[in-house]
Structure formats: structure tokens, C-alpha cells
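dumping this here so i dont lose it
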């Protein structure tokens, strides 16, 4: 007898279209048993819901993940049986909007009582309405991987915090030393001290980036926004970076918009990291005598900021990876250009812009230059 889903459907949903004959009942029981065997053999947690989100069926793995028994749970609506938490947000109702959620904590009274921390990747698919079922929810247990990942994130955060103090002290001593003895040093000694200073600065920037990455990964990167005059704000950041550009004989220009921009709410510290990162990158990846321009435009309800350079440009195949963690273009870079960064700036910038509700993108041509742009909504 082939597996009969409709029979099972009717059985579970209690739909009795016509009185069930004894031979039909045995088919239903057989079908039900087949379904049980199939579901119990699946390593993933499986929940079958009706179109209203009521749990019709669950396998043993799902019961283990929820910390409950099928008897106590089947018949409840999903949101009565379980809360799905991603970072700190309740995403239970998002389940039927998107079709996949990652690293979701299964919060049930049973799991809380037993102190169980269960994390799953969930995918949801709609079942053909004709079957009488609504949704198939598949849960893949990732608690172990999640635990390891949390340890890694925690380790990076602690290591970065611990490195901050000695680096600050190295920088402080170098500064004090050059203040006291700078004019007594010969050229070789000055070069040596400058190397120490540059490397301490690079290390400090790496540590700050790692701290920001771990804040993003832990969901603790928060914004403290206030209304600013974007034109003034940009102008002052660009002004602060002019010295670095001049050292490399690069012209760095900021053009104010023709008409006044509306007010905008931003986290000044975080946004200055974004702008500084884009402009610093342009300085790093542009040859001496190059040109960098920063300007804004108002488009509908958004302010778009552009940072353009006529530097080395970015190969087309790298553009899709630019905003991911630790990605750096290696092709065609000199050792000096390559050693300047750590591949975290654009990843962090994208997170910060996204947290502000904006988007960041780039247009670039190898050998011609790049234009990095990002949008921010006006308040
Ligand atoms: P990094 O610290 O390496 O600069 P980012 O995340 O800021 O890290 O940038 C990632 C990579 O993108 C850089 O290593 C570089 O290869 C490329 N890149 C970023 N900005 C530019 C630019 N203006 N011109 C050319 N390449 C760039």
C-alpha cells in the first residue's frame, strides 16, 4: 500500500468527509505508522503545522529540541509552544515571512527549567494546500557549533581588550621619548622611532577593529544617535585627514553641497569611523600625486555621500567580497600597499551604515580609481 498523505491529513486534522470504512481505517493507520517511521528516522527536528500555525505533528528530534513531549505540544499553536530568539530579538513570527533563520535559540518553559541552551538553523516551506497541511518546519541543531563560535567571539573580545592597555602604553612612551629626545636623534634613530610609532598605530587600529567586529558578532554594537549638520560633520573629518593625504602628496578635497542639507540623526563616533575608513582607504590605495574627492547629494529622502579616488581601483571579481570580514585584494598590490590594512574596515563600515538604515556600495575600475558611496535617511 503506497504512503497516503491525504489519509494522514484527514486523520490529523480530523476532517471526516465521509464515514471511514474499516479497510480505509487500516490504510490510515498504516499510513500513519509509515509517516512515524519516516519522521523518527530524520535527524532534523520536523514540525508540521496547519495553515494557522497549529502544530499537527512533530518528530522525536523536534520534541528533544523543544524539551517537551509530542503529547503535550501537538495541538498548540507554534507561538504558544515555543519562542524563537535570534540575538535578543523574538523572531517567532518572522518564521513565516522569510524561509530560513540561523542561530535561533529555542526558548520553551521546559528548556528554561532544564537550563538547556538549544540553538538551531530553521527552514520553513509551505506545503501544497491541497494536503490540508500548512507548513513544514525543519530544525537543524547547531548548539555545539554556536557554543564554539561564542567561545571564539569571546576570546577575540578578551584578547583585544587585553592588548589595548600595553599598546596605549607603548604609544605613550614613544610620544614622551620623542618629545624629550626627538631633536637629539640622528636620522637613523628617527627612522627607527617612526617605525615603532607606525607599527604601534597599526596595532592599535587592528585592536579597535577587532573589538568592533566582536561587538557586531555579539550584537552589542549599539548606536547613540543625535541630530547633526552632515555637511559640517563631513568637512571636519576630511580636514583631520588632510595631513595624512598631504604626507603622501595626495590632494584631498571636500565639496559642500550647493544647498543646505536637511538635519540627519547619526551616531557621531561610529559614523566618523565609516568616513575615516573610506577616506583612509582612498589615501592608502592611491599613488602619490593622486586625487581624492568627497561630496554629498540629496536624493529623495536620502543623503548620499561619495568618496572618490583615482587610485589603484578594485578588480571586478573582488567587489562582491569587499564588505566581508578580513577580505583584502592581493592581486597587483605592492608589499607596502598590502601591509597597510587588516581587511576589517569595510566590513565594520557596512555594519554601521546598515544599523543606520543605509546602504554602502562601490564602483571601481582597476587602474582608474574607485567611488565608495553610502546612503543615510534624513530625519
Ligand atoms: P583594509 O584594512 O585592508 O584596508 P578594508 O576592509 O577597509 O580593509 O578594505 C578591504 C580591501 O578593499 C582593502 O584591503 C583593499 O584591497 C580594498 N580597498 C578598499 N578601499 C579601496 C580603495 N579606495 N581603492 C582600492 N582598493 C580598496
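and the seq i came up w/
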Amino acid at each position: 500500500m503506497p504512503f497516503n498523505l491525504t489519509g494522514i491529513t484527514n486523520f490529523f486534522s480530523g476532517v471526516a468527509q465521509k464515514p471511514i470504512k474499516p479497510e480505509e481505517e487500516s490504510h490510515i493507520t498504516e499510513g500513519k505508522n509509515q509517516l512515524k517511521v519516516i519522521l523518527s528516522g530524520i535527524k532534523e527536528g520536523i514540525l508540521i503545522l496547519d495553515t494557522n500555525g497549529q502544530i499537527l505533528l512533530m518528530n522525536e528530534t523536534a520534541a528533544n529540541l523543544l524539551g517537551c513531549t509530542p503529547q503535550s505540544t501537538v495541538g498548540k499553536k507554534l507561538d504558544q509552544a515555543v519562542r524563537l530568539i535570534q540575538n535578543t530579538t523574538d523572531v517567532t513570527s518572522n518564521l513565516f515571512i522569510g524561509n530560513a533563520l540561523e542561530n535561533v535559540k529555542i526558548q520553551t518553559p521546559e528548556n528554561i527549567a532544564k537550563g538547556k541552551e538549544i540553538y538551531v538553523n530553521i527552514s520553513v516551506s509551505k506545503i501544497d494546500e491541497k494536503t490540508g497541511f500548512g507548513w513544514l518546519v525543519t530544525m537543524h541543531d547547531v548548539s555545539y557549533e554556536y557554543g564554539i563560535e561564542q567561545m571564539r567571539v569571546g576570546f577575540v573580545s578578551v584578547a583585544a581588550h587585553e592588548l589595548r592597555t600595553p599598546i596605549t602604553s607603548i604609544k605613550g612612551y614613544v610620544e614622551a621619548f620623542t618629545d624629550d629626545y626627538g631633536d637629539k636623534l640622528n636620522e637613523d634613530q628617527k627612522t627607527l622611532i617612526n617605525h615603532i610609532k607606525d607599527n604601534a598605530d597599526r596595532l592599535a587600529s587592528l585592536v579597535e577593529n577587532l573589538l568592533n567586529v566582536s561587538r557586531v558578532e555579539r550584537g552589542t554594537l549599539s548606536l547613540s544617535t543625535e541630530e547633526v549638520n552632515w555637511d559640517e560633520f563631513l568637512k571636519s573629518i576630511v580636514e583631520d585627514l588632510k595631513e595624512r593625504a598631504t604626507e603622501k602628496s595626495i590632494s584631498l578635497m571636500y565639496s559642500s553641497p550647493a544647498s543646505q542639507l536637511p538635519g540627519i540623526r547619526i551616531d557621531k563616533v561610529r559614523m566618523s569611523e565609516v568616513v575615516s575608513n573610506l577616506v583612509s582607504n582612498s589615501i592608502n590605495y592611491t599613488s602619490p600625486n593622486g586625487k581624492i574627492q568627497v561630496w554629498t547629494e540629496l536624493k529623495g529622502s536620502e543623503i548620499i555621500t561619495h568618496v572618490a579616488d583615482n587610485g589603484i581601483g578594485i578588480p571586478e571579481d573582488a567587489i562582491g567580497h569587499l564588505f566581508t570580514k578580513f577580505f583584502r585584494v592581493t592581486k597587483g598590490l605592492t608589499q607596502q600597499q598590502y601591509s597597510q590594512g587588516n581587511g576589517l574596515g569595510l566590513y565594520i563600515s557596512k555594519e554601521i551604515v546598515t544599523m543606520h538604515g543605509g546602504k554602502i556600495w562601490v564602483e571601481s575600475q582597476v587602474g582608474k580609481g574607485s567611488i565608495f558611496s553610502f546612503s543615510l535617511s534624513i530625519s
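The longest strand covers residues 291-299.
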